[in-house]
Amino acid sequence: MSEVPPQPDQTQGAPHPREAHLIGQTAAQSAFLDAFNSARLHHAWMISGPRGVGKATLAWKIARFLLATPDDDGGMFAPAPPTSLDINDDHPVARRLTALSEPRLFLLRRPYDEKTERLKTDITVDEVRRMKSFFSLSAADGGRRVAIVDSLDEMNPSAANALLKLLEEPPPKVTFLLITHQPARLLPTIRSRCRELRLGPLDAGDLSDALTAAGGNVAPEDRTALAELAGGSVGRAFELTNLDGLRLYQSLIDLLGGLPRLDRTRMQTLAEAASGKGAEAQFDLIIALIDLFLARTARAAALGGLAPDAAGGEGALIGRLAANPAHARPWAELAQALGNKARRGRAVNLDPAALVMDMLLAIESGAQSMPRAAS
After folding, report:
1. Is residue 300 in some structural domain?
2. 329-365 per-residue burial string, b: 16 or more CB within 10 A, e: under 16
3. Measured between alpha carbons, how far is 184 from 200 in angstroms, rounded to an integer?
4. φ and ψ at 277, to 5 degrees?
5. How many CB atoms lie within 10 A of CB 203?
6. How many domains does the chain have?
């Protein structure tokens, strides 16, 4: 067994959200602080938005704030209402949370299976029962307690139903911080019992600042391209940075620039980059970048243009492929078909190079079927 089990709520290469500093998302922070200061603190907060935009970081920031901020007893010497959620890193609560030793916090996430030496695929009902037992005990100081669930999307049906019962009859002085990437797929009854904090993608400046603060390094000239490819997600930006994703996307654009006919040698070079021992992450990234290119092409056709470019020559290429609004649907359908094919290929362990080659050939065929777009 590995000495340090992997953490399911941490992006590889990035600090854990409990150790990160939140950048941006001021509207969500203000909404929570306003509710706190006006004594309208809901018992369950659903923190939603795309992956990697700071949802877990916000949850940990709120947890620090709630556990470090004393109750207002209404006396004349009560402190002034807080003006931010910031808590100093040297505060005892902050140190305990970083060490995962805070007795008033319960972290619910996918558990590590000691037998298989792997993370379990979902959050089970047994984990929710552990949380219920934890909160059935009285807090040592009678103060606030917090539960972070990261994420709701990883709960199996039994776990989701068990959580719903807790939300229907919440323990006293417990605040639930529930993270979700796809709120529309959750039980409506869970959503109805939560107040939502919706987080949006970060802009290029905030994304670059967040990446730098988390230990990444972005050249000024790469900020816009990284923001475009990462979709405003710090987690995705980390993956792109660690795997040299900007260079890889440029190689893909250079190859596709030959449409409606692709250079077979360059196709083979790109496909071989996805194969071999230890190339799983590279394979996943190539598949994601192909999907992203097709999505950007379909969107450009629908909207009549796309800016800014995420790679040199991308705008001119997409301009040819998406010159007609009628091409939006075929490119979107191709993106969906190739995405399904990639998932099936992974499931049956299809040769990665062969799968990438098939996807590139499908794009070539798609471009040739739309001569005015690819001329």
Report:
1. yes
2. ebbbebbeebbebbeebeeeeeebbebbbbbbebbbe
3. 16
4. -65, 130
5. 14
6. 2
Three-state SS at 36: helix
What DSSP element (H or E) covers 344?
Answer: helix 328-347
Instruction: Determine the Cα–Cα distance for residues 147 and 40; give it in Å rounded to an integer.
Output: 18
Strand extents, DSSP E, 126-250 = 145-150, 174-180, 195-198
Same domain, 137 and 268: no
Domain residue limits at 142: 17-198
Task: Classify residue 219: in a domain, yes or no.
Answer: no
Q: Are 250 and 190 in the same domain?
A: no
Examine the fold and report which residue of 161, 183, 198 is the final residue of a domain before the chain moves on: 198
235 in a domain, yes or no?
A: no
Q: Is residue 269 domain-shared with residue 161, that is, in the same domain?
A: no
Tokens of 294: 């097709």
Q: pLDDT 10s digit of each residue in the chain, 375 long?
A: 345 677 888 877 678 899 988 988 999 999 999 999 998 899 999 999 998 899 999 999 999 999 999 876 555 666 788 999 999 999 999 999 999 999 999 999 998 888 887 888 899 999 999 999 999 876 656 689 999 999 999 999 999 999 999 999 999 999 999 999 999 999 999 999 999 999 999 887 888 888 777 776 677 778 888 888 998 888 888 888 888 999 999 999 999 999 999 999 999 999 999 887 778 889 989 999 999 999 999 999 999 887 789 999 999 999 999 988 999 999 999 999 999 999 888 778 889 999 999 999 999 999 998 755 444
On whether both 42 and 159 belong to a single domain, the answer is: yes
Same domain, yes or no: 57 and 182: yes
